[in-house]
Amino acid sequence: MKLVTEFRCGGVCVAWSFDHLVMDGSSLWQFMCSWSEICRGLSISMPPTHDRFFEQQHEQFSSITPTSSLSYVFEEVSNGMEAKIFEFDDGTIERLKFLASGSFSAFEVVASQVWIALCKARHLPASQKTSHQLPLNCRSRLSTPLLAGYFGNCVFCALAESTAGELVTGGLPFTGAVVHEAITRSNPFSKGVTDGVDTWGGSSPRFPMYSLDFGWGKPAAVRHATKLWNGFCFYDPSPRGGKAIEVTVFLPPETMAKFSEKVKTN
């Protein structure tokens, strides 16, 4: 579904929604980039690939048919949640990398800083187990890598786990190593999110959100309209460019006030 709104000031807002059963974030932004290229009269730079060759290579897929019965239970998870955006600019990220004392990516140190701050803001006991589930694009991680334009789903959750005490005491060097190991071991795993304890990540700073141009110029801002559950974080690129990352965090108001102070790095 797409919706275009024109404002009196001359600005334009393009909004859309999609079903995650149809595509993942990589495919969504491939579609959006293709749409913007068509609007500018250009050829699509990355045509979609709908080849499902892996279904033919792996026998377990043969048992999945369109008539397989599936059931879903949807719950209202956004009641009482507050959304706030925190920007980590290039200077802040370099400072976090220095404090982490390791060869960690910008995403890894930002996710680590957010996770530590959430443990503090929630006043979790030192012995409390906590996890940060992070989206993992597996297109290039398969034994037979998917083609660049593969359109569909190929994303899993990397599960970083520890105790609140270890994260807070160990700081960025320890937490960065936990996050890095979860991402690099390529061992997708997912579990339910414990309210007020765990953290869930979505989106990616690598998505080309600010490359979109429908003929009006690059976007001034790209935002998530749907509020999600306690502790959900969207990790997005910043309109500033560079390595800057915007993190949209969903928390109850009382926790958000504490988190806003704890996540500061200066």
What does this structure look like?
It contains 6 helices and 8 strands, in the order ββααβααββαβββα. The protein has 266 residues and is an alpha/beta fold. It has one domain (24-41, 75-262): Chloramphenicol acetyltransferase-like domain (Chloramphenicol Acetyltransferase, 2-Layer Sandwich). The strands form 2 sheets. Strands 3-8-7-6-4-5 form a 6-stranded mixed β-sheet. The protein has a two-stranded antiparallel sheet with strand order 1-2. α3 (90-100) crosses α4 (106-121), α4 runs antiparallel to α5 and α4 (106-121) packs across α6 (253-262). The protein is globular.
- In total, the number of strands is 8
The 3D shape can be described as globular
CATH class reads Alpha Beta
The main β sheet shows up as:
6 strands, mixed
Share of β-strand residues: 15-25%
How many helices does DSSP assign?
6
H-E order = EEHHEHHEEHEEEH
Please identify which CATH superfamily we are dealing with. Chloramphenicol acetyltransferase-like domain
Strand order of the largest sheet: 3-8-7-6-4-5
The poorly predicted ranges are none
CATH structural architecture = 2-Layer Sandwich
* Estimated structural class: alpha/beta
Number of structural domains: 1
What is the rounded Rg?
20 Å
Predict the CATH topology. Answer: Chloramphenicol Acetyltransferase
N-to-C span: 42 Å
